């Protein structure tokens, strides 16, 4: 994964609590992967590259959360070439599609299959 970006900013606190977002390119398409409600503000050292298996945070209950859990959200601006069952359009304030929310389980299980070295 490349482009890890710590999006925590006290002036931008939201219902997501402590979070980390990063960009991952799969088959030429960029996906934003966000890890939300982390226990502490994550910090990624060095050049921002995250390696497979690297711990980026701990489960938490920050933001508008009622218990410890990890919320993973995957979005893209490109319409995904996957069954419609596994994504939803994201609408902007004008009622136009501004992106797509991908089912995170499907993304991790199916879409990353060819990207993960064995």
In short:
The chain is mainly beta and 118 residues long. The chain has 1 helix and 6 strands, in the order E-E-E-E-E-E-H.
Model description:
The protein has 118 residues and is mainly beta. The chain has a single domain (2-111), classed as Glucose Permease (Domain IIA). Helices cover 7% and strands 34% of the residues. The protein is built from one helix and six strands. The protein has a six-stranded antiparallel beta sheet with strand order 1-2-3-4-6-5. The longest helix has 8 residues, at 104-111. The radius of gyration is 15 Å and the shape is globular. The two termini are 16 Å apart.
Report low-confidence residues grouped into runs of 5 or more: 1-13
Q: Report the sheet-strand fraction.
A: 25-35%
Measured distance between first and last alpha carbons? 16 Å
CATH topology: Glucose Permease (Domain IIA)
The strands making up the biggest β-sheet line up spatially as 1-2-3-4-6-5
Helix content: under 10%
Number of helices: 1
Quaternary structure classification = single chain
Round the mean pLDDT to the nearest integer and report it. Answer: 80
Which structural class do the helices and strands define? mainly beta
Radius of gyration: 15 Å
InterPro entries: Dup_hybrid_motif, M23ase_b-sheet_dom
Organism: Leptospira jelokensis
Domain M23ase beta-sheet core: 23-76
Pfam families: Peptidase_M23
């Amino acid at each position: 994964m490349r482009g890890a970006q710590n999006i925590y900013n006290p002036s931008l606190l939201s219902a997501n609590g402590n979070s980390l977002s990063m960009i991952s390119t799969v088959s030429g398409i960029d996906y934003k992967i966000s890890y939300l409600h982390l226990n502490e503000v994550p910090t990624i050292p060095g050049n921002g590259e995250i390696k497979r298996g690297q711990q980026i945070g701990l489960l938490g209950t920050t933001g508008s959360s009622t218990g410890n859990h990890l919320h993973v959200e995957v979005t893209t601006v490109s319409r995904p070439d996957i069954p419609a069952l596994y994504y939803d359009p994201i609408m902007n304030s004008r009622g136009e599609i501004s992106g797509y929310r991908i089912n995170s389980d499907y993304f991790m299980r199916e879409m990353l299959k060819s990207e993960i070295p064995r």
